[in-house]
TrEMBL record:
Known role: Component of the COP9 signalosome complex (CSN), a complex involved in various cellular and developmental processes.
Name of the protein this chain belongs to: COP9 signalosome complex subunit 6
Organism of provenance: Cafeteria roenbergensis (Marine flagellate)
Family matches, as PROSITE patterns: MPN
Location(s), subcellular: Cytoplasm; Nucleus
Length: 344
């Protein structure tokens, strides 16, 4: 166990980190409580991964984010999640934007006053050595954060959810030193009534056509129903015209059934119908406008972020160029390598 703990602390390899996790699990008697994970958190993570893969056309892309919820004693309830802004580290792992994370925590506390940062999430197989570097960054904002890993590489015969939850504990090495390692936790899916209804609605409104939106699919079903209704009303109109012209002998019972059917169809020329229709059209257009504005704001935020990164890079390049110019002006054609060789 000591060797595994040391390997996880130094971040030598993913297999060493896995050994450290197993060793830590054996060294403790499951003292921690159960982590309650809400289904919306899992949906947010999978949506994040799907969008990134579609934007980058990569199947091995990993995504990262933070988890918010409530913590009481040893029990943790994860209720929502948000994506992280980060940069890839050269040696693996990510470097979190501290300003972005602090702003995210502040805004979340304003909306969910009883919530706090309880951990972070990442996609991919069980914790690797590079994850400990990110976990140490999260420790600066949470006393005991959890790590939720979602493995997107799912086997066809797999029946369990591909997620796992970990906490960080100190494992004692052979030399007496203590190393921070990951230890698995027990988790349960906690769904409220509202979440259950939402999940059922999402599961039952999947589009039949690939790359088609749910909204388009719903409107297509409504249009098809209206088309069928129009065809049946046309049949009734033709029947009544032929009865009125004397081509068909009137059947009182059949005419009463037709009257009942016509009475159930709302009158399209009534003021109530026009008001309800205009209200639905206005709500739909407003929803579409808000969605377009949100999409535009997100695109503008990405463009501004890239411009800021470009300005920082340009400023750094100018600073280096100025430093090289100043050095050349100060020392002329001074050759450091030749001078060092002469001194030697």
């Amino acid at each position: 166990m000591a060797a595994a703990a040391a390997a996880a602390g130094t971040g030598s390899s993913s297999s060493s980190s896995a050994s450290a996790v197993a060793a830590a699990a054996g060294a403790r008697d499951d003292a921690s409580g159960v982590v309650l994970v809400h289904p919306m958190v899992i949906m947010n993570i999978t949506d994040h991964l799907t969008r990134v893969r579609q934007q980058t056309s990569a199947t091995t892309q990993r995504v990262f984010g933070v988890l918010y919820g409530k913590q009481s004693g040893l029990s943790v309830e994860v209720t929502t999640s948000f994506e992280l802004k980060y940069a890839e580290r050269e040696g693996g792992g990510i470097e979190i934007s501290k300003s972005y994370l602090e702003k995210n925590i502040q805004l979340t506390k304003e909306v969910f006053q009883d919530h706090e940062l309880v951990g972070w999430y990442a996609t991919g197989p069980g914790p690797i050595a590079a994850d400990m570097l990110t976990h140490r960054d999260i420790l600066a904002h949470s006393d005991n954060p959890v790590l939720l890993k979602l493995d997107s590489d799912i086997a066809e015969d797999q029946r369990d959810l591909p997620i796992a939850v970990f906490e960080s504990i100190f494992a004692e090495a052979a030399d007496g030193s203590r190393t921070l390692v990951f230890s698995p936790l027990t988790y349960k899916i906690q769904a409220g009534e509202a979440e259950t209804v939402t999940l059922e609605a999402v599961a039952n409104t999947r589009p039949d056509v690939e790359n088609d939106s749910v909204l388009t699919h719903t409107y297509a079903k409504t249009a098809e129903a209206m088309r069928r209704l129009s065809e049946r009303v046309a049949v009734l109109q033709r029947f009544l015209r032929e009865v009125h012209s004397g081509k068909i002998t009137p059947d009182r019972h059949l005419l009463r059934l037709v009257s009942d059917v016509v009475a159930r169809i709302p009158t399209a020329d009534s003021s109530d119908f026009r008001g309800a229709l205009l209200s639905d059209v206005s709500d739909t257009l407003l929803t579409t406008l808000v969605a377009a504005m949100a999409k535009g704001a997100a695109g503008l935020s990405q463009v501004l972020g890239r411009l800021e990164d470009g300005k920082d890079a340009a400023a750094l390049s100018r600073s280096r160029a100025y430093g090289a110019h100043a050095f050349a002006g100060e020392y002329g054609d001074y050759d450091m390598g030749m001078d060092m060789g002469t001194d030697a």
